[in-house]
Amino acid sequence: MKITVVGGGYVGLVSAACFADLGHNVTIIEIDNQKIDEINKGIPPIYEDGLEEILKATVGKSLVSQADYHDLEDTDVFFICVGTPPQDDGSANLTYLSQAAESIGTAIRGAKKYQVITVKSTVPPGTTESVVLPGLLRSSGRTEESIGFCMNPEFLREGRAIDDFKNPDRIVIGGNTNDAIALVKQVYAGVSAPLITTSIKAAEMIKYTSNSFLAMKISFSNEIGNLCKKLGINVYEVMNGVGYDHRINPHFLNAGLGFGGSCFPKDVMALIRLAEKNNEEPILLKSVITVNEGQPEKIVSLLTERIGALSDKHIAILGLAFKDNTDDVRDSRSIPVIQSLLKKGAKITAYDPMATESMKRYYPNLNYKQTAGEALEGADACLVLTEWPEFKAIDSEFNRMKTKVIIEGRRILSLDGIEGVCW
Ligand code: UGA
């Protein structure tokens, strides 16, 4: 099939590469010329496990990136993967989405074949039908009989996105007609997973609800973890016992610093705003955010309890990324921790296997180190802020510290008796 993906960001690029890998002919429309160049040379502009191999195998054959909307008349399915960043009040900004709809419409004005426009960006329920559909019909001058509309949310985790694409728990396709849904189904013909078809609005809501539920599991574990800490109980023992219940399941019950990244904080806030706009009080969702916002300061308070006032203390930070296997620091819980430490006059050395360059955009003057051992040299205390698997192997390096006070914000070290923010 001929597929056009609008937006070569995280979701767009990974999806486009995987569509090409499935055997489709894929064009990525991207506004950033540097990204276009990199993609067309087979160089991934972002780090994602396995992406480079797919780009190398498909670029120049079945995958191409371009800046403008030319030669798209023969596209079967368009996927809109542009950003929907949060506005000041937390609601989603739909400017890029409506621009993409206008541009696709103009590009397919004269096209004769049946085409489907599929929104993959995370958007509030109703958006595809109230923003994309009318904008696109207007600019294309075509009728609803000749264009179908779908919403196909993505459930890809950064760092594991290619694997998530190839082995999804489910594929959700919401559509306005059976023909539209059937065409998008064909795109995924090579992927084996339960296929759930819904209304467009339900598909949009499934995405927000899934992310909010997962975020709720994390905040729930953190609330229980904070209590366990006071009671001298290890929350990981508790959640292990709880997670064996198949109605609960063991995943996403890891207590710690809370959730960061470009998705959970943004999507929970957007759902809160949506509820409020509809005169519903989102009690649970607001608590999910409140618990999450409190976790970074918990680790700083614990540190103060252990080593006293932080002024001029040397704190070694291991891990800056919002989670392991990514160089992404967006909304990373390490940011509020660093902010609080600096405010209290601490001196920081920091090490991350991948995210140092990204964190320099937030804190250019932090004392970044090349190895964990260098960061630990002479430190009064160490905070572990990301669950990097390589931290499991750290052992004798801790002997380089002045005083061996170690607190985990993410439970990852393999040393015995290490305390954590809530265990
Ligand atoms: C999340 C969802 O997991 C994906 O399904 C979804 O497609 C994606 O958002 C999105 O909307 O695009 P992602 O943000 O990449 O994926 O990362 P996760 O692996 O879900 O982790 C999010 C945060 O939660 C991280 O900071 C992680 O450390 C934290 N976390 C995760 C916990 O604190 N405890 C856990 O048990 C699990």
Molecular structure report:
This protein has 423 residues and is α/β, with parallel strands linked by helices. The protein folds into 2 domains: 2-198, NAD(P)-binding Rossmann-like Domain (Rossmann fold, 3-Layer(aba) Sandwich); 236-420, 3-Layer(aba) Sandwich (Rossmann fold), CATH 3.40.50. The protein has 14 helices and 14 strands. The protein has helices at 10-21, 33-40, 51-58, 95-107, 127-140, 161-166, 178-187, 200-231, 235-243, 264-277, 283-307, 334-343, 356-360, 372-376; strands at 2-6, 25-29, 63-66, 77-80, 115-119, 147-151, 171-175, 195-198, 314-318, 347-351, 367-368, 381-384, 406-408, 419-420. The strands form 2 sheets. Strands 3-2-1-4-5-6-7-8 form an 8-stranded mixed sheet, sandwiched between helices. Helix 8 crosses helix 10. The longest helix has 32 residues, at 200-231. It is globular, with a radius of gyration of 23 Å. The N and C termini lie far apart (52 Å). The mean pLDDT is 97. The protein binds uridine-5'-diphosphate-glucuronic acid. The site of uridine-5'-diphosphate-glucuronic acid (UGA) has 20 residues, from helix 8.
